[in-house]
Amino acid sequence: MSDVIFDHKECGSCPIRHRAVCARCETDELEELDAIKYYRSYEAGQPIVWSGDRMDFVASVVTGVASLSQAMEDGRTQMVGLLLPSDFLGRPGRDVAPYDVIAVSNLTLCCFRRKPFEQMMIRTPHIGQRLLEMTLDELDAAREWMLILGRKTAREKIASLMAILARREASLGLGSTENGMSFELPLTREAMADYLGLTLETVSRQISALKRDGVITLEGKRKVLIPDFDRLQIETGDDTDGGLMV
Amino acid sequence: MSDVIFDHKECGSCPIRHRAVCARCETDELEELDAIKYYRSYEAGQPIVWSGDRMDFVASVVTGVASLSQAMEDGRTQMVGLLLPSDFLGRPGRDVAPYDVIAVSNLTLCCFRRKPFEQMMIRTPHIGQRLLEMTLDELDAAREWMLILGRKTAREKIASLMAILARREASLGLGSTENGMSFELPLTREAMADYLGLTLETVSRQISALKRDGVITLEGKRKVLIPDFDRLQIETGDDTDGGLMV
DNA sequence: CGACTCGTTGATGTTTATCAATGATTGTGG
DNA sequence: CCACAATCATTGATAAACATCAACGAGTCG
Q1: What are phi and psi of A156, to 5 degrees?
Q2: Where is the HTH crp-type domain (chains A, B) (predicted)?
């Protein structure tokens, strides 16, 4: 049921070919990557690695969503990364995972054995260059997230999360309808709480409040409609104008 | 009084030579960097760039401390980076600053004009490799910080900050005395508040509480003594054992 | 059907923010 | 040199935001 091993697939038809760590690779480089890659799938909710585990691979997310999180001894948990398709998992040169990694939705990874990948990175600047670019983007995202965690109200936090998810959907060319934007929430209330540094009750209450105020509409518990994105943007507390909407 | 332009200095005698973005460069590469570098100094409190400003240079912090922070329209501010000696400022390929950068203490930067630096990065893999390593370290630090912001109590936040600063001092081989560890606080109460997502009053109260409970001792307002680091570590709420004390 | 997960909502409690006063220190101009 | 302003820090009183504890509804799986 779990850990289905996918068949080999061609890089040429890969949905993340042009955004993942291999984005800049030439044909010959792709062939080399091809030789050390293998696919691996997980069902929603399954753990991928635990903090402290040895990790012998790095990977790209092909489909689905994974979370990185840190847990304190008493159970308090903070999500510190949300990996979407094309995002990279693992750190070359490090063999022990510093975070818990969990499949939030059904997930497929394109894995590379770590040692060969590291050796290839030395020979292939395109990989390191792309990884640097992706890591800098992640750092920017982490810093935006720090503002959310440190300074925003519960309502602003929820609005910010909705805006981030809506923008992502839009950047993939999806979700726009005649009545505004829409997307599927990939996270449970508890996962949203761990993302935002709130309790799940507060998440639930604030979602209800935004719904009551007409900022969002729910279809079922997971499908979100944004009738007016500018209105949502105002609720996030962020600059509406000038700022670099990262 | 401000913006003193330092004289040219030799890379060979540079205090951050082996930790900064140039750490892996060979002699000839250093000479090339030398040709595009210039020093620049700022006094404590001075702005270096504002969010939205054009930024035509990247730089290494040589001495002193700088902060990156994000401000909301109503004045709420979150620090999102603290740059210490050897840390890198700026992003190759980006010409507009996304954060306010402020000199927290007196500060000297080793600046490189951005365009020549970017061209050199293409020719010189050592620079990109080192920058990737440093960026990954910063991302780890940002994620530890996210746990602090999202899930720790005010007391744990203060204890965590003290522990981070004490560890840094120790990693430079400084601060250890017969009565434990000591260091100078580089931040005002307000800057600590912006770092930790608190108000300055709460920072002040929690410092007083830790002092009252004997976890720390103050000499003046800025010099901190840690009589028992393990005790402080417990106050941070982090794993005392196992965890990778990053 | 009963157990389980996920989500919602209410009542209450705790933590931290806000507002306000004051002390200590430093720099400035008369 | 002193009076004054300005900055940084501390502490108290009160208010607001969010967490905690608790009950319950809806959907799903065995």
Answers
A1: -65, -35
A2: 152-230
